[in-house]
Model the fold of this input.
Amino acid sequence: MNKKQLSELLNSLTLKQKIGQLFQSPGVAYNDDATATGVTYLPWLNSDTVENAGSTLNIFDNKKLRQIQKNHLKKNPVPLLFMADIINGYRLVFPSSIAQGCSFNPDLAQKAAKITAYEASKCGVSVTFSPMIDVARDARWGRISEGYGETALLNKDFGVANVKGYQGDDLSSDDTIAACVKHFAAYGATYDGRDYNEAQISQNTLKSVYLPPFEACIKAGARLIMPSFNTINGIPCTANKKLLKDTLRDKWKFDGVVISDYGAIKETADIGGAKDYAETAKMSLECGVDIDMVSESYYFNLEKLVENGEVDEKLIDQAVMRVLMLKNDLGILDDPYKYIKEEFDNFDFSSEQHEDFAKDFVCQSSVLLKNEGELPLNKKDDIAFIGPFSVINELMTNWSRVTPHRDKGISIEQALAQKFGKNKFSCIKGSKFAQPEIRSVKLEKFENASPSQEELIKQAVSKAKESKKVVLFLGEHKDLFGEATSRSDISLPKPQKELFDAVYEVNKNITVVLFAGRPLEIKDISQKSKALLYVWFPGTYGAEAIVDMLFGDAVPSGKLDMTLPQCIGQVPIFCEKPVPSHYSASIEGGIKHAYSCRWIDVTNYPLYPFGYGLSYTEFEYSDIKISADTMTRDEKITVSVDVTNKGGVDAYETVQMYIRDVVTPYLSTPLKTLKAYKKVFIKQGETAKVCFEINEEMLKYYNIDNEYISENGEFKVFVGANSAEDNFVKFTLK
Ligand code: NOJ
Done:
């Protein structure tokens, strides 16, 4: 439809129908099989709300979707828009986002999102609530696995890559879907690690850390954005004028659709920030929130508010127009069945190319933290494979449960059989996933009562005793992280610690493969094991890729996108921390006296720093050079380093560049901020010259007056294999 036709459509709608376009109905209102991702006890929901709704979420059966659309169009002149939480893949599931960030390779994320869009667009879905680009630094927070780690830069780069991958160049094409960036903003900055809790955050941190990924994604063309559940300094994001109006609409000029999170609009009243749901409707609409996802605020109040003159109907028209434009650009106004054509019902999604790509993505996202000559394994060795994660398939996060057509993948045991034949290696469970006290309801159902923990350990010990080496597959079950799943203890669940200790008693040649949704507290197992491979949650082809890595047919090349703490007491611990206020000089040079900023019972240093990760080869860094000692604002200078592959395997290395502005008047700023990185493939014996360009933008920061500026003076540029390395060159900005 052209602009004129869209206006005619808008004008033809009654006020009630228009308000309906601004209401998102839950999937369960149409179909019992829809996946619930929020509260489904909604006594206010009736056939009238459902008929008038403009969109719904998380329904996946093509035939049912066609019927739903058909019924809908009998009563509503505007086609229903189907949105969904397609997170890290539809049929083919890729590594979790926190794992993807460790690849330091946004091109892979873009390709994964493109494949996802291709698949989802044949299953009815034309909007995904992805990517989540919340910077997160607190390992207790349950949703940390959904973003790309602790830095603004990785969240920004991976966010943009996802937007481009989902949306392509043309939203109206058959294989693309619209991206919805979330959660705006500072959702990951919850002050005590609990999900949905308040973020207490300065304007400076908000602007320099939490907002840039969103701004970049909006610039890249993201069509939707979702305000977050949390409050920032007490103000709910769903009714935050500064954030939604002044920043998003006015400053960034976003003209796409703002959709609230599930039930979030009404919550401004629930927390005492408004007197009733009518007031919340007015507040959020005036902030530019277009769609009310599954709450009664808009649908049951806007009509009256317009009639009473409390809300200008023009605001409703603007919001409806944004929704209609989205539907139009997706092509469903012209063809309501575009994404649910009959010919898609038996669509063959299999693609060897996509599968190989998924495996490679796992290897590029897995982080080798330790290797005392243990890996790769030799298939001739006598190896015991033990651990609860060795015998299950579906090595993916809980979001995958939303999409019933996911390809669940195989277990490590099956992958070993696939690679070496049925009788070569076997796997045993060895322990329960978690102690009953922390088992979630879902996990409780999943774990059988027998055999008992004692019996499992007994079997494991006897197997470990008679083997030369042991590989333990341990970690955090997918029901122990995610939405509303924060933890105060981030160590390995107790039964698995028992397993580790029992095996360690009888066999010291231990390799640990760790599955996790967050940085775990793993000091003990890191010290005691000989090799440690952090695989997060790798997705459909996880098991095959892990077995390939273990036996050297693939090389892990991930680097940590999150700092790993020594213990929970250090959390939140992250690389880009401002210098502490008291006796700060002691930080750069290490702790020198009792009055330093420190804990008395643990070092200031993490267990593994941001950016850390080993390979099956060794890389040597030499000859760091800077092209000039001074730089002006319209100039660019270059820093280069030689990286030599000294080992016996061709492999990737991620070279990282951090910058420190040495003097920032009145302010403490981070000692090092990640400004650029390059992942390069270097053949054994060869040297790659890796160059980084430095421009003025990289030197800017928010000063004491919240102005975004660069300042004349000295800068240090650190180039190395991780954030803890201290090789730097200097230059002066003039
Ligand atoms: C709540 C979550 O916070 C959000 O990420 C998700 O997209 C919506 N529910 C819809 O399921």
Notes: The two ends are 53 Å apart (CA to CA). The longest helix spans residues 313-330. The chain has a mean pLDDT of 96. The domain at 616-733 is CATH 2.60.40.10 (Immunoglobulin-like).
